[in-house]
Structure formats: C-alpha cells, structure tokens
Specification:
By secondary structure, this protein is α+β, with helices and mostly antiparallel strands. It has eleven helices and seven strands. One of its GO terms (cellular component) is plasma membrane. Residues 154-181 form a coiled coil.
C-alpha cells in the first residue's frame, strides 16, 4: 500500500510559513530593520532555538519596555547567560570558542598539506631511483606505475587540503569582521559597551604596570527623553550622532570613547592628569552647549543640548568596576546639582 506523504509535507510547509509570518510581524511591530543579524536573532527566539533570548523578550514586553535595535543587540551580545571568567557574555564567548576551533582546524589542514607534500616528494624520489635499476625491469616498472598512481592521489589530496586551508582562512576573515561588527555601536560607529570593557581591562593592566594614570568619565545627555518625545526618535538619533562626533574629537592613543548604552557615553583617559582629562571633557561640554540643534523634518528648533558628566581616578579604587560605579555616582551628583556640569568623584 502506498503511503501518502503529502499531508506531512503540507504540515511542515504550514509550520514554516507560520514561523516566517511571525518573524515578519515581530520585526514590523517593533520597528526593527530586516537585516541578517535580526533575522537570525528573531528566528532563534521565535523558533525556540534561543530560549534565553525568548525569555528576555517576554520579560521586556511584560515590563512595558520597548524591544529596540539597541536592546536586542545588547541582549544578544551580553545575553542572560552568566559572565565567564574573562568577562565575555553570550555571543562573545561563543565567538571566542569558534575562533579557537577555527584556528585549530586551519593549523591541522596546513600541517596535513605539508606532510602530504613531503610524502609525495619522497615517493617521486623513490620512483626515480627505482627506474634506474635494470636487473628487475618488469618488477620495477610495475611498482613504478603503482607508485605513480599513489603520487597522483597524494597530489590530489594535497590540492584538496590547500582548498580547505583557503576556506578556513576565508572563514577566519569573516569571523574577524563579524567580531568587529559585534563590538561597534551601529548608530554612532563608536565602540559599544562590550568593546569598552575589554579595552578598560587591557589599559588597566598596562597602565598599572607602567605606573601611568587612568581616568574614567561617564557622560549623559540632559533631558534626552524630552527630545525623543517632542521631536521623535530620528531627531534623537541625530543628536546621539552629534554627541558621538564631538566626543570623538578628543580621542587619540591616550583617550578612548564608547557608547555605553542609551544616551550614555564613557571615556577613558590614560597617562594624563585628572585636570587635563577634565579640561578635554569640559571643552566638549561647552562646545555642545553653545550649539542650537534644528529638527530637519519639521524645521523646529530642538534647542540647547547639554551634557552632565562624572569622572573617577581608576587607581583610587580596588578594581575598574568600582571606578565605573564611582564615575556613575559622580554623574548622578552632577544631575542633582543642576546638570550641564562635570563632577570629579574625589571632589565629594
């Protein structure tokens, strides 16, 4: 009796179609871009493959929060998983494991290809020597033919290993690009929180070993929610880009800027005094306060955009995370004192 396979196939197609519709609806409902990264993330959450992300989305929605592009990327990178001993989270830790596996595979294929090449060269040398023996002409000819066949297969294997090695190198380059993309804030082009924390750990060790100063600074855009509420998120995004560009002007080998999240930015000053770091930071604050922003969509004035900041000497605390908290507390104090100012943690 013939088995009717059309019904199972139709169920599979229906399930796939429903999942595709759910993914589309999710992206449209939350105003998310249709990008390969978003498709993978949302597919994982809705299909059940990424249960951690699914739980995070449900909790976010239940709490009345918006599933924004920034939040989705931050949760995907930092994830609900516990922090590893190196401070990496979620995707970051998986990237490290994949990089290690890829490096091992590339090394293996390279070694195999070189070993195959040496084996083939040895066989060729033996065939050449055997061909000069006249006493066993028939035997030598047979062995020579067999060995040459083996050489042909060896060379083919060598070519295949070369292809695998090239493919591994291509994959490694793509992984490096993906890693860089995972550490860049898509809106401002600045390093994101994950990248900054890696940078902080590296400079902390280097500055301590070299007996150099290390200053942290947090800054936050004053009344930024009002800008979004009155003028819309597009105008808010342009303000964020303008702040990022202004802060980036201060960067050099001893100064680094990153977007820490939302309207908050973080700076790291190395091997300069607290006074010099504060002056650089304050110059940016004053320059921005003098500008007047216009909503291009409506030609309505956005008005004055100001920053509040908090700074802390990293080596005045037991570890960099304590310094981050001190700088954040100083930022909060700057807000309480009326905004549009910078407070250094040691001053209060």
């Amino acid at each position: 009796m013939l088995q009717d396979t059309s019904r199972p196939q139709s169920i599979v197609h229906k399930t796939r179609r429903e999942l595709l519709n759910n993914i589309s609806s999710f992206l449209l409902h939350h105003s998310l871009e249709v990008t390969p990264t978003n498709l993978v993330l949302v597919h994982g959450a809705l299909s059940g493959e990424n249960r951690g992300l699914a739980r995070a989305i449900v909790a976010r929605v239940d709490a009345g929060g918006a599933v924004t592009q920034e939040w989705l990327e931050e949760v995907a990178l930092l994830g609900p998983e516990p922090t590893t001993k190196h401070g990496q989270h979620g995707v970051g830790a998986l990237i490290e494991k994949l990089e290690a596996a890829l490096e091992a595979f590339a090394s293996l294929t390279s070694n195999m290809r070189h070993a195959t090449s040496r084996y083939g060269e040895t066989l060729e040398q033996q065939v050449s020597e055997m061909s000069r023996i006249e006493e066993a002409e028939y035997l030598v000819a047979s062995l020579s033919a067999l060995t040459r066949a083996m050489i042909g297969r060896t060379r083919k294997a060598e070519e295949e290993m070369g292809k695998y090695e090239d493919e591994a190198e291509t994959l490694r380059r793509r992984l490096e690009n993906a890693t860089r993309d995972a550490e860049i804030d898509y809106l401002t082009g600045l390093p994101n929180r994950r990248a900054f924390e890696v940078l902080l750990d590296r400079h902390y060790g280097e500055a301590r070993a070299a007996a150099e100063s290390l200053i942290l600074a947090f800054c936050d855009i004053d009344h930024f929610k009002r800008v979004n509420d009155i003028h819309g998120h597009e105008a808010g995004d342009r303000v964020l880009k303008a702040i990022a560009a202004a802060l980036s002007k201060t960067t050099d080998n001893n100064c680094h800027v990153a977007r820490y999240g939302g309207e908050e930015f973080v700076m790291l000053f190395r091997n300069i005094s607290t006074n010099e770091a504060r002056k650089r930071f304050d110059d940016v604050r004053k320059e921005l306060a003098e500008q007047r922003f216009i909503n291009r969509a409506t030609d309505r004035p956005v008005g004055q955009i100001t920053l509040s900041g908090g700074m802390a000497n990293v080596f005045a605390y037991s570890d960099p995370r304590e310094a981050l908290k001190a700088a954040d507390d100083a930022l909060f104090l700057a807000k309480e004192r009326g905004r549009n100012q910078i407070v250094v943690a040691e001053n209060y």
